[in-house]
Write a structure and sequence with these properties.
Two copies of one chain form a homodimer. By secondary structure, chain A is mainly α. The first copy, chain A, contains nine helices and no strands. Chain A binds a DNA duplex through residues 27-29, 38-41, 43-44, 48-49.
DNA sequence: CAACCTGGAGAACGATCGTTCTCCGACTGG
DNA sequence: CCAGTCGGAGAACGATCGTTCTCCAGGTTG
């Protein structure tokens, strides 16, 4: 097994385990067992668990950005592209192992202890906000709408996770449409 | 020190430490040092750390319910009572040690490991949702509005925590007002 | 073939943590 | 004053975890 595939297997295994059980609850030995990569090799590739955690989060950040970009750009109508964000969330929340947003969860678990994790989480949410802001601009909506839609999306993520239901994505979508369609000043 | 004050000091110290640093990051010895209650006494009152965690969350649940109830019932106009929820959030987010909602954080940290914690978090959020639903009914808004406002509130909590700014409460308030005022069908 | 390097399995190490135990001082009832 | 109880301080215990080390098999190069 070369370095590239070992690294990929490690990131895959760690990402799944961290998301399912929480970061602190997963020991390095569990990652070794799930990935098939020895501890020695693991520590050659990632000098500490924290390095691995950060790499996992950064990779997930890029993956979600690409996924969401593909999802929203598949629609032509600008308003529909905004609403597509909430359809994306609905599909995500419907997955049987959905446990909330990994970045929100990591912030809750490690935000007090790791400034690096905080920075990665902020970067991810800032990129998400920027994406929404671009869609809002394309739809000729006022810039302030973007922050409101971001709050709806983040709120749907945690509400769905806690309730164990994907419905909040639909409720957030309806709220978003109402915000976009309302004929009153802000 | 009698049992009642020992219990109160324990709950106070544990609540502060858990909220500031996360639950798993706080050892029982740190709680002993902060509360001044010996480990022996602590384990007489709470047979395990998990029991203490649950007691802390349950007490915080009741305190927040009462606080929010007082805050919203201080206004007379039904629509204003709904918006007061977001003013309450703004005050909360402005506190210098704000680190998000303790229930969302606990769910993120322990949701995979402790079914009891999950149930307490669900109960808290259900009570919060019920409170909003009552305000929505009083304001003659359609019942579906309650879920949308809950998502806005939860979203403001996490967005403010990650951004390190109380502004999301204002943005959520503006969104709520727009949802309430819009002259279009749902 | 022989010296060497690589990498795996898993033991070992040191730290931390939840929980319990030991020891001892201080207060109580008679 | 004394036997007995309570509770505190902190050591002890057992488990877990991140990280490193040991030992060894297998392949590579001269």
């Amino acid at each position: 097994m070369d370095h590239t595939t070992a690294e990929a297997r490690l990131l895959d295994a760690a990402d799944t385990l961290f998301y399912d059980r929480g970061i602190q609850a997963v020991g390095m030995d569990a990652i070794r067992a799930a990935s098939g990569v020895s501890l020695k090799r693991t520590y050659q590739l990632f000098p500490s668990k924290e390095h691995l955690v950060e790499a996992v989060l950064r990779r997930r950040d890029l993956a979600i950005r690409a996924e969401l970009e593909a999802y929203t750009s598949a629609r032509t109508n600008p308003t529909e592209r905004i609403l597509a964000v909430f359809d994306y969330l609905y599909e995500w929340f419907g997955q049987p192992d959905y446990r909330g947003c990994a970045f929100i969860n990591s912030f809750a678990e490690l935000g007090a202890a790791s400034e690096n994790v905080v920075e990665i989480v902020r970067t991810h949410k800032r990129a998400f906000a920027d994406h929404i802001a671009a869609l809002v601009a394309d739809a000729d909506q006022p810039p302030a709408r973007a922050g409101q839609l971001l709050i709806l999306a983040n709120g749907a993520m945690v509400t769905a996770a806690i309730a164990g239901s994907p419905e909040p994505a639909r409720e957030a979508r309806a709220a978003a449409r109402r915000l976009l369609d309302a004929d009153v000043p802000d």
